[in-house]
Design brief:
The chain folds into two domains: about 5-150, no CATH class; about 155-240. The protein has nine helices and no strands. The chain has helices spanning about 5, 10-25, 25-30, 35-55, 65-85, 95-105, 110-120, 125-130, 155-240. The radius of gyration is 46 Å and the shape is rod-shaped.
Length: about 240
Amino acid sequence: MTDRSIASRPSMEQVMAIVEFMEKHPALALGQLRGLEGRDESKKLWLQLTMTVNNLSGPTRPMKSWVKYWADKKSTVRAKVQSTGGDPNTLCSNIEKKIWDLFLANDSTSTKQRNTSVKQETHFLDENFFNEDSIDQDHEEDPVLAFEEPIVDIEDRQMAIMDKLVKVMSEQASALTQMARASQVHSQAMERLADASHIQARAVERLAGSLEAVGGASHAVRDAIVDIDASLKRFYSASPT
């Protein structure tokens, strides 16, 4: 078993190749190839897609695994949109948006009809579909690890991480902007306080000068009163009785 076959998730290059192939073959993508001729055509196209995808960087898988991957991928995209009330704008992956726009957006069939389409697709998973001479006998049927679990694209995880990172960076930038504004307001307040302190110091200085002047005037008035009192005493002492 090679290292490529051990990997459980396809690479972004492989996923894009699958979507581009399905875009060229919408009937295959929607499971609309029916009957004996449709079955043969489906097998031929899936074999072609399997060989193409396995030659790209990423895990090598048997055709059965790629059929299941595509069915699961569409189900995942449909479930995400339905869980948000039918809003495809909530899809964070460009690949998922493309799958929705190309294969699921115009799916106005009833639930029963959709289930019939899914059943038509899953007949590709029957053993008889793969045990025929048209399949590459040299391909090793390696088990796919944890394939039963929902497939999560690497791009999905990367986009989710990037969205969270952008959100955190935006919040940090907003916090830094608020801090800068607060610092500016604080600086302006300190400048006004300094100006007020300077004005107060000058007022105190003028008040001190005024009090000093008042003190000097009071001293002069007191001296004048003393002189008047002395003059009056001399005047009365010199007058005849």
